[in-house]
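Record pair follows.
FIRST:
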Amino acid sequence: MDVCGEIKLGEKPHSSTMSSPWPALLLGVACVAGGTAGYVRTNSKPSLIAGLSVGILYLWAGAALRNGNTKGITGAMGASAILFLSSIPRVAKGPVPAMLTILSAASGYYYYPAFKALQS
């Protein structure tokens, strides 16, 4: 692995540091779609900005993981933390914030072992 966290040609990623990109990619699409829907439905600029920001971070992380770049794990953990921390205060306000809280916690739980392995 080189200093940028990318897997060199012919090198296999260490199983404890590579995770599937699919949770990050799916959450990225969901965040972008949700932020856009929130803006269209209620003209909420914060929903649009937050959805696009976190969604793009998740999509970048998923793309990085698909390309063998371990920095995608850090990106997925960061996006999960941002989404979790921003959703938890609104968890009782309805099903959407509750689902965002659950999905971000699940994503963090999924990517944490690989993130921890990268830190050591």
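SECOND:
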Amino acid sequence: MMVQMPYLESYVQFPTGRMTLTQIQQIFTTIPFEIDLIDHTDHFSWYSNQPQREHVRTLKDLGEHVQKCHPAKAWPIVAKIIQSFKDGSRDAVARPLVMNGHRVFIQYFALRDVNGEYLGTIEFTGSAEPILQALENGGWSDASSGASKADGKTGVPAVTDADTGASTHPETGAVADAGTSQTDAYSGASQSDSTGPFSDSGQATDAMTGASEY
């Protein structure tokens, strides 16, 4: 269960406006993806507190070395990504995976200051199901009119697979029974190609991790 932290009602002033601490907290709780922050010493320092996360994090994880927050199979991949951010050879890496029965897109970003100094790594994880379901059901087929099949409440198509009978949750996009083989959630990152992030996009693909660099 998420811990509700008290806030003094103060503002944070950004170059593009200001927000209260409560607004900032609720933004991270509301957005449909999760964010983890690894500091420049490779310690887990912060996570966004969505009610349902792909990667389960707790307050006890804070301050731990990032290796302790990843399964043994995943650590060599994560360590290589972080090192590439530190040495400046990469700024971002993406890994499409299957987790908890649905497709997710994990992106790692190097966090740098205005002078390019490494501050840490952001791990950004989101379900790809709403986008993929919209694409598969003609979400961009009528670009001239902008017409869509999305429902009025969530903006996401409620879809039943004609071949498998799998139902898709209209809010999360999670597939109840897709009838597809599951990719290893830690080492089976998909190769990518030029038609999109899940096939080939002209991005360099890491031969060891399967992660795509861009």
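COMMENT: The longest strand covers residues 102-112.
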